[in-house]
Amino acid sequence: MADEARVEEQVESSLIIRIISELFGSPLNLALLGICSFLIYKIVASRRSADSIPAKEPELPPLKKQDFTLEQLREFDGKGAEGRVLIAVNGKVFDVTRGKRFYGPGGPYGLFAGHDASRALATFSLGEDALKNEYDDLSDLNSLQMESVREWEMQFQEKYVYVGKLLKPGEQPTDYTDTEDEEKTEVDKKSQ
Ligand code: HEM
User: Considering its fold, how many domains does the chain have in total?
Assistant: First the structure.
């Protein structure tokens, strides 16, 4: 019995040693570990600072349904007077202001604010090169990456308010005056 327990202990400790040497043995793994630790730190820190704010920030009035060009989207990076944050995912623009601790200035995903985050989300990258200055049709992404973008889109759809489309170059904005009542119901549901 004691022998069995000793063997089990040895197996466990050799497994731990293998995991540690795998993590620290390659510069790539070390870099990934560093990025993950940094993101966890930023998320925990933003949670703490949100907890220490005594009164909840008043919610912004919902935006009227409208389409955006990339240039128009850039104005909503959370640094404006109103502090509103918009992000595009797979051609759809979402108001993510209620997720400001993620996307606001200084947040772990603050670089997405006012941008099309599709490529960054698809490739799991937080580098500036995943955020293009011109319209990104994502045509070079593979099917797995496109699947991942669609999953992110669904996640955003569930959590945040959809505001309108991200316009392709030359595309005309839609006139949403007839659909405003439906939109109000959608916004009310999300804010509950
Ligand atoms: C590699 C290490 C990473 C770790 C440990 C990490 C950790 C986390 C955690 C814990 C959350 C949930 C926070 C919460 O609900 O309180 C989160 C959310 C999120 N992460 Fe990461 N993440 C990592 C990398 C990335 C990368 C590379 C991207 C994008 C390119 C990304 C994009 C997001 C987004 C968009 C959210 C959702 C925020 C929301 O709910 O609106 N993460 N991450």
Answer: 2
Centroid of ligand 1 to alpha carbon of 108 (angstroms)? 8
Residue 33 shares a structural domain with residue 76: no
Atom 13 of ligand 1, residue of closest alpha carbon? 43
**Closest ligand 1 atom, CA of 112?**
35
Pocket flag, ligand 1, residue 160 (CB < 6 Å): no
43-65 residue pLDDT tens: 887 777 666 555 556 789 999 99
Q: Which residue's structure tokens are 């909503």?
A: 76
**One domain, residues 27 and 117:** no
**Is 167 within the bounds of a domain?**
yes
pLDDT (tens digit per residue) in 90-112: 999 999 999 999 999 999 999 99
Determine the atom of ligand 1 nearest the C-alpha atom of 130.
30
Let me know: does 137 contact 62? Beta carbons within 8 Å. Answer: no
Question: Does any domain span residue 59?
Answer: no
CA-atom Rg of the chain in angstroms: 22
pLDDT per residue as tens digits for the range 150-163 = 999 999 999 999 99
Domain extent, residue 185, equals 70-191
Q: Which of 151, 149, 78, 77 minimizes the C-alpha distance to 115? A: 77
Whether residue 61 is contained in a domain is answered as: no
